[in-house]
Design brief:
This protein is 44% helix and 13% strand. The protein is α+β, with helices and mostly antiparallel strands.
């Protein structure tokens, strides 16, 4: 799929078939994540791959019962790893750049998934402490986004977007 087609056809998918992801599909998504831009190329984030059905159910519960999380065959959990930024960027690297790095990586993953005809949905509503405990991430790694990925039951239609005239401001 051509880049702008990928961007314009990306949709938040909240219903997945039981079809598993192929290993090469997941590998391509992970390679795209690794190519994502980050502050100073420090890559101050970690990604946890969750395939285990019980762990996906636990993540769904920790996400205020968003059951589609358990339905997806793969969930990627993006965490900050802010200490990687600390020596170079100090407090701003810890408080902001690590969050930006993780969320940029998640954005790249959504586009990579769509380019492979897979659906995904960004999940930011969850109990951070519960997700941290479920995935067993070390202290200092903060979950900031989850991305369930799979074959959609159906592709959602386009959603209304703000007109560019309201969104863009030229100085």
């Amino acid at each position: 799929m051509e880049f702008f087609e990928v961007v314009h056809n990306r949709r938040s998918t909240r219903a997945f078939t039981s079809q598993p992801l192929e290993d090469n599909q997941l590998h391509l998504i992970l390679e795209a994540i690794n190519a994502a831009p980050s502050a100073g190329n420090m890559q101050a984030y970690e990604v946890y791959i969750v395939r285990d059905p019980q762990i996906r159910k636990d993540l769904a519960k920790a996400s205020y019962d968003q059951e589609f999380i358990a339905q997806a065959p793969v969930v990627l959990v993006f965490c900050t790893h802010a200490t990687l930024n600390q020596p170079r960027y100090g407090p701003r690297g810890i408080q902001l750049y690590a969050v930006q790095d993780a969320t940029i990586a998640c954005t790249i993953a959504t586009l990579a998934a769509r380019s492979l005809d897979l659906g995904s949905v960004w999940v930011g509503a969850f109990d951070e402490d519960a997700v941290h405990a479920i995935i067993g991430s070390p202290k200092g790694q903060t979950p900031v986004a989850m991305l369930p990925i799979g074959v959609p039951v159906k592709w959602p239609g386009p959603r209304p977007r703000r007109p560019l005239a309201e969104l863009i401001h030229e100085l």
